[in-house]
Amino acid sequence: MLRDGARRYLADDFATRRRGDGAAGSAGWRGYADLGWLALLAPEDAGGLGGDIEDVLILAEEMGRALSLQPYIASAVLATGLVDLVAAGQQRLDLLGAMASGDRRFAPALYEPGRRYRLEPEVRAVTSGAGYRLSGAKSLIAGGAGADGLLVTALLGDGVVGLFLAAMENAAIFPTRYATIDDADTIDVRFEQVELGPDALLGITTIDAIDDVLDEARLALCADTLGALERAVEITADYLKTRTQFGQPLANFQALQHSVVEMYIDADSIRSSLYNAIAVFDRGGREDRRRAVSSCWVKTFDAAKGIAGMAVHLHGGIGMTTEYPVGHYLRRVMVSERSFGDVEHHLARYMELAG
Amino acid sequence: MKLAFSAEDEAFRAEVRSFLAAELPPGLARREAAGFHNKRATVHPWQQKLCAKGWAAPNWPAEFGGAGWSPIQRYIFELECGLANAPEYSLIAMSMAGPVLCRFGSPELQQEFLEPMLKGDCWFCQGFSEPQAGSDLASLRTRAVRDGDDYVITGQKIWTTDAHMADYMICLARTDAEVKPQAGLSMIIMPMDAPGVTVRPIDTIDGDAHVNEVFIEDARVPAHYLIGEPNSGWTQAKYLLGHERTHNAYLGMLRRYLARIPALIDDELCRGLPAAEAGEYRRRHARLAIDVDALEWSVLRVLAGEEGPALGAAASAISIRGAAYLLRAADLEMAILGPQVVPRFGPDDGAPLVAGAPPAAAGRTTQYLYWWAATIFGGSDEIQRNIIWSTLFR
User: Which of A88, A334, A336, B3 shows the smallest number of beta carbons within 10 Å?
Assistant: First the structure.
């Protein structure tokens, strides 16, 4: 039911965007809020639905399928998880409520230039009067463009990591806005002696705890990718049935049939890997969860470019055009596989835990 | 989709594990672990133990002496047997002829054959493929002609697994040449000692001989040995091939490989292996483990009864990937063993042909070579891809 509704709602996303009727397509953030999608993972005590990760994964699949550019995983899944983890008391309730209703949208700023996928921040926060002063830089902040604020990890000294909420209108935050190859908006930021009030520090946390929250976002991104790849396979099979060469549909040629079948098996194996991770998520301890998420990540992104690239290939020239959707799946997975650690990063994490 | 093993499943797993630990003959497990096929005589005591426990036939209905397990329990049993290095036994009788007889056989045939099959006293081979009928099975030419109270069978079978040690063949033969190819086939039980039946083993590249040519010249078989109605053989064959949808994932064997490969990297046999190479092999092992985790869930999705059009394609997809992963696992062992793979070995237990040559890699090598057959038998990878295409995309 959730899936059917989401599929209908997101159906025209890509076409609308191509027509230029709105940078983010027809299904805007407000619409997501009205459908309750932003409240799915927020706890019930903060006005959320306290939903299941599985519902989020279904939505993520549909968003990948529809090539949606809304920063759902960054600003709904990850940001909600971080605030829920770190903030406390009335501030936690207020922020989670505002995020769930769509009134405020935040973008997590975890990664830094020249630090690949390390989560340990080099951005520093020092006390300044009653508040804090932030310096350093963050990069590739998904959902950062148009966000109300950034959720910034910063070093408070002695290896203590704090999570700060920095409002975007602060004059000492210098954002650089640019498009990523999947046509999404992103920003890098420099913090030049950014003065923050005492309540900007949401709380103290640990890299391990952040990594745990990230694992939910990682699974969501794997699901997004699965949805994208399954759609790419469908589009390709349909195209082969309509395109005629040598006096017959391309779908009559066994070599092409078998290429599509291999794409299908690879994509469906990602679904199996995702189910494995979900099962572990429900009952496993931290190590088991990490292992299962990294396993799913490697499985997903080892196969993703091969499937999406083959979808382009089997279309011939039309697959190379920006006008046609299939090539956008390839561009999307290239961004996704670099979002929360890449294949090598997760293979290493898997092997450390496998011991 | 949620699926977790219940407390009962885990208790069952523990029971299987302790049974295997107590009852599986160590010599048998050693030979199996080394990579060699066990023979009929050596696996017979093991089958009898399983039979006494009521576990000999995981795939049969309980009323015929089957274990009466749920799909998940069958899967757990296969996995634990794989990990414990328990050998397969009487494969054709237990997994193919048995289920077909349970489903389609007359009470007389069930009475005559099922119990001896269970006890391991009656082995079957499967006479499907012919020299001109491989992937195109329906074009087979072996005929069974009714003559009084008998059928007279004439023809030739090939790639017949276990024919050299079987008591009977479950033989797919043409009983009506006037109808379309699939509609004129029947399954009939043929005693291998019937006059006119000649078996010739075929040496295969893995250094063993499990498959045979079978020449059949006017072999007489009692008419009631024909299973079910005449000309219903194609239906029965499809039932048989679809019966064990998930067996071809080879998960038991894959788990066995995954468990032993890290130890092989550190084995004395691989002395001199450079650290960088060892690291690369560990990475290949990790990638394989990740793929096998996913394959396992592909199997569980089928066992849990996931529905939709993809179910029809699932068995084929599982079979393709299962065979591919077996080859990757075995090839990884070949890579790790390096030069140890090269010396040629004898046919049994891998005794070196030249005195003093290292024997230890022989079993791993014979397994690697054998797994290429997994991309061919039970419907080649290409046939499986055809099935997936026509199920999902045509």
Answer: A88
